[in-house]
Design brief:
By secondary structure, this protein is α/β, with parallel strands linked by helices. The chain has 14 helices and twelve strands. The chain has two domains: 242 residues, Aspartate Aminotransferase, domain 2 (3-Layer(aba) Sandwich); 124 residues, Aspartate Aminotransferase, domain 1 (Alpha-Beta Complex). Helices cover 39% and strands 16% of the residues. The strands form two sheets. The chain has a seven-stranded mixed beta sheet with strand order 1-7-6-5-4-2-3, with helices on both faces. The chain has a five-stranded mixed beta sheet with strand order 8-9-12-11-10. The structure holds pyridoxal-5'-phosphate.
Length: 372
C-alpha cells in the first residue's frame, strides 16, 4: 500500500455502532468494571493507556514500519523517556549538529544523573567508530540535522551500533516517514517531535518513539511512559492523528517549494551559502539519494555579513513569519543563534527556513525584495 493510503486508512476507522467517520476523542480518565469486577477492554486508567492515544500510537508504528509506537507530550518528553530507560554509567553518542534541546537534556539532566555522552560528527564514520566505548548503549542520529542539514549514513551507523551491542536511534522529525524510514535502514528506534510535520499546523505539542521490535528496552520505555506519565492529552493525540491524514501531500508540496527557494538563494549575490539536501553540491549527495525519497522542506541560508545583515534581511520579509519551530503550513524563518542563546555554536549569519504551503512564486518574490 502507498504511504498516503496507509496514512489515511490507519487514521480512519469508522465506528461500527454509531457509524461516525471521524473518530471520537476519548476524554475519560477511568474505565468502569462490571458486576464481577472485570474490565470490558484493555483500559484501566488513562495515564498508562487511552483509546485515542492508542489509535495514534498504532498509526505511528505503521507509518515508520515499526512494531510499537508510543506517544508523548512533546518531542523532548519522548527523548527524555528514552534516556531514562538507560542506566547510570551508560554512554550515549550524539551528532555534533543536532536539535539543541537533545544535548541540553544530556548535559543538564542526565549527566548529573550518571549518563555520559560524546558529541561526534556523524558524517565521519571513522570518528563514530573511534568514539564508541564499551558502555555505549545509544548512537543518536539526527538526519538531516538541525540546523546545518548534515546527513548521517543511517545504514552504516546502525551497523556500527549493532557491532558494539548498542542501539541506533534516529530523530526523523525533519524528514518524516514520507521521505525517510530509518527502521528500514537498520535503526532500532525512531523519534519524532510530532509538534512539527506530523501534526502540521503549529497548534499542538507532541512527541513519539517508534520501536523496531518489542524488545526488553521497548518494555522498559513503555513502563516509564505509563509510570511517569509524560503523555499527550487525548485531544492532542486526535490533532496529531488528523494532521497525519495530509502528511504526504503537505510534505511533498512544501518540499517542491523548498527546492525552488534553495536554488534561488544559491544564485543570489547577497547569499554566502545554502544548506539543503536537494542541491547538487550537497556534500552527502550520494547518501541522500540512497536513503531519502526527497530533500524535505527545511533549509538554512547563510547571508553575506554577520548577525546584523541576517536580522536586517528577515526584518524586511512579509510572508515568512519570524518565529521558532517548523513543519507547519505557514512559512517560518528564524535567526537560529538568537533562539539557541549564548552557548549557540550556530553561525551568526545563519537563518533557518521552514517552507510552508504558500504559493512558491509569492515566497520567492518576498525573499527577492528583502535581499535586494
Ligand atoms: N527534534 C527536533 C529535530 C526538533 O526540531 C525539535 C523541536 O524543535 C525537537 C526534537 C523537540 O521537540 P518538542 O519541541 O516537541 O519538544
Amino acid at each position: 500500500m502507498h504511504f498516503d493510503t496507509l496514512a489515511l486508512r490507519a487514521t480512519h476507522q469508522p465506528d461500527p455502532i454509531t457509524g461516525v467517520v471521524v473518530p471520537p476523542i476519548h476524554l475519560s480518565t477511568t474505565y468502569a468494571r462490571n458486576e464481577a469486577n472485570e474490565l470490558p477492554g484493555p483500559y484501566i486508567y488513562t495515564r498508562p493507556n487511552n483509546p485515542t492515544r492508542e489509535a495514534l500510537e498504532k498509526t505511528l508504528a505503521m507509518l515508520e514500519g515499526g512494531a510499537v509506537g508510543m506517544a508523548f507530550g512533546s518531542g523532548q518528553a519522548a527523548t527524555m523517556t528514552l534516556f531514562q530507560a538507560l542506566s547510570p554509567g551508560d554512554h550515549v553518542l550524539l551528532s555534533t549538529d543536532a536539535y539543541y534541546g537533545t544535548p541540553a537534556l544530556l548535559e543538564q539532566v542526565f549527566h548529573p544523573w550518571g549518563l555520559t555522552y560524546t558529541r561526534v560528527d556523524m558524517r565521519d564514520l571513522e570518528a563514530v567508530r573511534a568514539s564508541i566505548h564499551e558502555n555505549t548503549r545509544v548512537l543518536w542520529c539526527e538526519t538531516p540535522s538541525n540546523p546545518m542539514l548534515d546527513i548521517a549514513d543511517l545504514r552504516s551507523i546502525s551497523q556500527l551500533a549493532h557491532d558494539a551491542g548498542a542501539i541506533c536511534v534516529c530523530d526523523n522529525t525533519w524528514a518524516t516517514p514520507v521521505l525517510q524510514r530509518p527502521i528500514e535502514l537498520g535503526c532500532d528506534v525512531v523519534m519524532h517531535s510530532t509538534t512539527k510535520y506530523l501534526s502540521g499546523h503549529s497548534d499542538v505539542l507532541g512527541g513519539a518513539l517508534i520501536f523496531k521490535e518489542e524488545a526488553e528496552f521497548t518494555q522498559r520505555v513503555r513502563l516509564l511512559q505509563g509510570l511517569s506519565g509524560a503523555v499527550p492529552s487525548p485531544f492532542d493525540c486526535w490533532l496529531v492523528s488528523r494532521g497525519i491524514k495530509t502528511l504526504g501531500v503537505r510534505v511533498r508540496a512544501q518540499s517542491d517549494t523548498a527546492q525552488r527557494i534553495a536554488e534561488f538563494l544559491t544564485n543570489h549575490l547577497a547569499v554566502e551559502s545554502v544548506h539543503y539536501p536537494g542541491l547538487e553540491n550537497h556534500p552527502q549527495r550520494s547518501i541522500i539519494q540512497q536513503q531519502m525519497k526527497g530533500p524535505g522542506a527545511m533549509l538554512s541560508v547563510q547571508v553575506k555579513g554577520g548577525a546584523d545583515e541576517a536580522l536586517r534581511f528577515i526584518g524586511k520579509l512579509t510572508l515568512f513569519t519570524r518565529a521558532t519551530s517548523l513543519g507547519g503550513v505557514e512559512s517560518l524563518i528564524e535567526h537560529r543563534a538568537t533562539a539557541e542563546g549564548p552557548n549557540s555554536i550556530t553561525p551568526k549569519n545563519l537563518l533557518r527556513i521552514s517552507v510552508g504551503l504558500e504559493h512558491a512564486d509569492d515566497l520567492l518574490a518576498d525573499l527577492a525584495q528583502a535581499l535586494d
